[in-house]
């Protein structure tokens, strides 16, 4: 970013800051921010839209295995042209034709997942109008039942009925994970702003204290209790405090804008400044590593995907084996048929109608193509098994690390909070000692640095803990604090 762009960004942030300071602050806790993010953030809405899409995809899959009623045909089908007609002497004559050949077919069909075939019942009516001869004929099938059954072939429907439910369950897990990821992202932005606000408070306090100490130092210099060098050091501290204050204010405004945009705040909430509470209340709920593993493999979309990927590998192997051999299809059709000059003639004393056909393909010479395809599918299957196994081990290690990290960070929060209190008390004592000329400027500066570092460390420890807390929820989709599975929002 060049100097001009930085200048205008600073001006815009200052103007926006002035507008916000006139509004009442928006007081929020971490839990409230997380809930707002889950309900109204753009990321949460995208997750809900994707889940809705996956739901209707699954509904479409289920509908494919229910009876399908359809009406098809051609109405009208008019032709006026010259057609080629071979004469008895072998010559060709072009005869004029003008006709209409319309067809309507009503069919009820049902897929058979167990065998991969389909059975159907149909009713058909055909009308042929010869406009040149001025006559009309009807042909129809009052009733027919048929079967189309692949023989010795790969059955995709059998595998779809195994894989698609897993895919849908996987999408449900992904939706809950997306909401937990939103919570984790909101937590990160919350603490980015909270840290920036704490730094701003520290900068404001240091600036005010340094101004006061500089005034006191001026009087002490007149009394000869401090040196000119100590006074200059305090003056430098005042300048640095003012510079830190300006930088902290800009950082806080940028962090506020990021959180506001993520929460997708509208109306009055888009203008009010944030006032964030420090989430110091930490529950000491136990987390058993074996329970965490069990919940993760029961709830996570990754765990469901492991099983889906293995099934897809088995499907591909079977497909490669069966499509390289004899492929045949049995088509059978039994029913009634008739013709006549009127539509009712089709339904009066219809005649039997039978059709049976077996179509097959037998590869004879493939130059090893069939074996190569099968070996490739089997090798890919082995690779999938190995990849899934490695992914399981990596996931288990990640989860184990997260559980142990949560316990360690809980202790860190307690220790840094105690250190922060000690550092604040020590600074108060140091400040009083300086006023009484019992402490050097250097020692006072060290006390200030320790105070600021301890406060920042306490906030950063809280940030690490809460991010670890929501990461564990994301990895297991389980709420250990309430001992229940995390569910997505009910639409």
Automatic annotation (TrEMBL):
Cellular component terms (Gene Ontology): cell outer membrane; efflux pump complex
Organism: Rudanella paleaurantiibacter
Keywords of this entry: Cell outer membrane, Membrane, Transmembrane, Transmembrane beta strand, Transport
Compartments, as annotated in UniProt: Cell outer membrane
One example GO MF annotation: efflux transmembrane transporter activity
Presence of keyword Cytoplasm: no
Family: Belongs to the outer membrane factor (OMF) (TC 1.B.17) family.
Keyword field contains Transcription regulation: no
Xref: Gene3D superfamilies: Outer membrane efflux proteins (OEP)
UniProt-recorded name of the protein: TolC family protein
Pfam families hit by this protein: OEP (PF02321)
InterPro entries: OMP_efflux, TolC-like
Chain ranges passing through the membrane: none
Chief place of localization: membrane
